[in-house]
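>> received
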Amino acid sequence: MMVLRWFLQHFGISLFIATMLLTSLSCHAQRLAVKNDAIYDALLIPNLGMELKTGGHTTVDVEAIYDPISFQSDKKWKNWSVQPEVRFWGCKPFSGMFIGLNALAGGFNVARIPVFDFNDKRAQCHLFYGGGVTLGNHYVISPRWGVETKVSLDFVHIEYSRYRCGTCGYKEDDIVTNYAGPTSLSVALIYVIK
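>> returned
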């Protein structure tokens, strides 16, 4: 378990980028779509996704976010996550409704944010992980463009450290908790490579 945690923590984003580049070089153009989530864009969080058709009713989707930004007054909401997913389509890939099985891994460093009781504290998690189901719909705009809406419901295991203030290094506690519920709400712009 420690080896998996170390690997995901140090190579998660690099593995995602390498997978995207290698897959795009080795697959047929009609089978590949790239996507960008408009909700993350509105929050100024860089994100990117890629989906590959694997069969008549299946695709594999991988999405990642990375937010390295700190705000004024020692506020920060830094996070990263990778979410691979296998999707099963009702009709055909990239059209209509789908259900997916996903995995999720990521980390965060949050300080002085008025949510989760972190107004004057800092929380740092090197790795959280979990999985669950996704329900969504792909709306075709044109042969190359589409809009995807989805919601993911997951079980997530989180281990993080809580610090007394946003800048000091005094650790108050190590916390282990689990979360079950919505983890993703997405409205993404899709470009299908033809």
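>> Confidence is low (pLDDT under 50) at residues 18-29.
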